[in-house]
Amino acid sequence: MKLRHLAWTLLALVVLGAAAAGGIVAMNLRGEDPLPAQAEAFQSTPQLVERGRYLALAGNCAGCHTTRGGEPYAGGMPIDTPFGTVYSSNLTPDDKAGIGSWSSAHFWRAMHNGRSKDGRLLYPAFPYPSFTQVTREDSDAIYAYLRSVPPAPEPNRAHRLRFPYDTQAALAVWRALSFKPEPFVANAGKPAEWNRGAYLVNGLGHCIACHGSRNSLGATETKLGLSGGLIAVENWYAPSLTDPHEAGLADWPATEVVALLKNGTAPRGSVMGPMADVVFRSTQYLSEADLTAMANYLKDLPDAPKAEAPAVAAAKAPIRRDAGTMARGAKIYDQRCAYCHGDQGQGAAGAYPPLAGNRAVNMARPTNLIQVISHGGFLPSTSGNPRPYGMPPFGQTLDAAEVAAVLTYVRGSWGNDSAPVTQLDTMRR
């Protein structure tokens, strides 16, 4: 009797396991059309190649698929994640190492469904959760362009991921929970320009990959939108594009948003860190029309809900700062910072940004300030700003306590009223 009961239990478990496996397989195949029995003839034209070149810039494809000093699009770029290191693939038309043997349908399946030519599931370090919104026409144009670049025989490197993240089974479970291929759907209630901006921001631009928060499995919390997020491993914070106290753009003139994306600097702000690379490699090359479309879409994002304004909160609970820390920070600022940023944090127009009233200075998270102080930073060199200013690194001359002190001083002076920075903050990663 016991043996029979055990047998039935085991059978039930097997059936449940098979059903779960079948469900996972089905969820990984949803929205995926079968490949043509025979590779379709692909007709490329110079116009299609040029369009693809432009779209590859919009997607910043070279940012991940070209190593420093390496052949364009030959891959091999290490992408560090909390689960290990993923290496970007070779996108050149080399028959063995690259995509020379791929059809346009293979490439479309990778973009839309996150699946390689041989059927393997791709890791979402390749941002197909965003690229799934790219149209087949645009995918074909990018494919045409990549087939026009010089082939490079650089072999693809094996990923270095911890178990079980290095298995296709684990990736299949992740995809079943976190990925659904979805085409871009225009909002009928919005003008064509707004929809173009939405397509570029949410699709090719994959802005949510940095400006969105992620769960414990590394999946983007799409329901939270562009509400800001810590870029894993790099330890830069991509500020919220919906919060007016971070990087919300609702009150910016569209021309200033365009200037920021085109030149890396605008009257109300500038870019450093990972965003500087995006401007350098991608957005500075986009057309005025596309940048304006992106600007108007970003300006129209709903403001993040706030319980109360910071000024109201401060009035209720004044921020306390240690007098000794402020004095120490003031001395460091006078010695290291005032020459460029001014004795009152006023900055120098066209050269060094003001620190007084600066949103980046007053954000709740001091992460980016600590990065800039410790490691320095530069604006991107662009046609509109060919000789950008730079911030020298002070990580070798200031210890953690000194970095915390000077940032506490800056965040509490000249009308700034933000929380002090602790030594612990400088050591968080």
Describe it for me?
The chain has 429 residues and is mainly α. It has 3 domains: 136 residues, Cytochrome Bc1 Complex, Chain D, domain 2; 108 residues, Cytochrome Bc1 Complex, Chain D, domain 2, CATH 1.10.760; 118 residues, Orthogonal Bundle (Cytochrome Bc1 Complex, Chain D, domain 2), CATH 1.10.760. It is 43% helix and 6% strand. It has a 3-stranded antiparallel β-sheet with strand order 1-2-3, with no helix packed on it. It has a two-stranded antiparallel sheet with strand order 4-5. A hairpin with a 2-residue loop joins β1 and β2. It starts with a helix and ends with a helix.
How much of the sequence lies in strands comes to: 5-15%
CATH class of the largest domain: Mainly Alpha
Q: Which blocks of ≥5 consecutive residues have pLDDT under 50? A: none
Bulk shape: globular
| CATH topology grouping of the largest domain | Cytochrome Bc1 Complex, Chain D, domain 2
Counting structural domains, the number is 3
Number of strands: 9
**Overall mean pLDDT:** 90
- Return the structural class: mainly alpha
User: What's the order of the H and E elements?
Assistant: HHHEEHHHEHHHEEHEEHHHHHHHEEHH
Fraction of helical residues: 40-55%
- The CATH architecture category of the largest domain equals Orthogonal Bundle
Number of helices: 19
Q: Can you list the strand order of the major beta sheet?
A: 1-2-3
Largest sheet: 3 strands, antiparallel
Radius of gyration, Cα only, in angstroms? Answer: 25 Å
Taking the alpha carbons of the first and last residues, their distance comes to 57 Å
